[in-house]
Amino acid sequence: MSMKLGVILGSIRDIRRGNRVAQWLMPQLEAFEAFETELLDLRDYPLPFFDENDSPEGHNGDYANGIGRKWSAKIKEKDAYIIIAPEYNHGTSAVLKNALDWLYDEWNRKPVTFISYSPNAVGGVRGVEQLRQNVIELQMAPLREAIHITYVLDTLTEDGKLLQGHYDERLVKLMEELDWWSAALKAARENKK
Predict the structure, then answer these.
(1) What is the DSSP letter of 48?
(2) Looking at residue 165, what is its pLDDT?
(3) Domains identified in the chain, total number
(4) Residue-range definition of the domain harbouring residue 104
(5) Spans in the chain with pLDDT lower than 50
(6) pTM for this model (two decimals)
(7) CATH code assigned at 156
(8) Rounded to the nearest 5°, which phi and psi values hold at 124?
(9) pLDDT of res. 172
(10) Nearest partner of 104 among 69, 72, 141, judged by Cα
């Protein structure tokens, strides 16, 4: 059973360090044959702050905003997600939180995990703790397994070469868990139809 994995790059800054993470991650994901993987760069979905008249719950993709409709269609087609998450001021980026808030049904009953990063020893863990609360409210299943990349500038080169750390090994464990949860939840969603 092939599953569709969306990797969401959660920063749009010109000097975002998430590019390093994506450059490291995307080639490695090719080894996990259970997934068809696509990078979803939030730069390609310039959503305004959520301003629809109704709550996202129950919209079913029927948004007034064209970018909102495009984002909805892309998220709806995926079975699982990895969010590449920066940490700004002990939290996540506003653009990432807004991208989550734009949708509801499209996220439901799908697994999500996080690869966070920061230029210090924290590795983005505080931002991920906030995101876990957000995705639970969206009826997603956040995995226990996550990767928190510390000292990202010393850990990954601009082209994604890993300089230090056991992140390659951590990714294997993370993907094993994501595979199990993705297959289980996809089967349950299809059985419910």
Answers:
(1) P
(2) 86
(3) 1
(4) 3-192
(5) none
(6) 0.96
(7) 3.40.50.360
(8) 85, 10
(9) 96
(10) 72
What is residue 137's three-state secondary structure?
helix
The tokens for 116 are 């966070």
What residues have CB less than 8 Å from 21, skipping those under 6 apart? 84, 115, 117, 149, 152, 156, 160
Say how far apart CA 54 and CA 83 lie, in whole Å: 26
At 48, list the tokens.
Answer: 């305004």
* Cα dist from 94 to 4, 66, 69, 185, whole Å: 26, 20, 20, 28
Are 99 and 42 a contacting pair, CB within 8 Å?
yes
User: Measured between alpha carbons, how far is 31 from 33 in angstroms, rounded to an integer?
Assistant: 6
- pLDDT at position 193 is 66
* CB distance 37 to 30 below 8 Å: yes
* Residue range 47-71, pLDDT digits in tens: 999 999 888 987 877 899 999 999 9
Burial class (CB in 10 A: 0-12, 13-18, 19+), 156: buried
133's tokens: 């609360």
User: What value does the CA radius of gyration of the chain take, rounded to a whole number of Å?
Assistant: 16
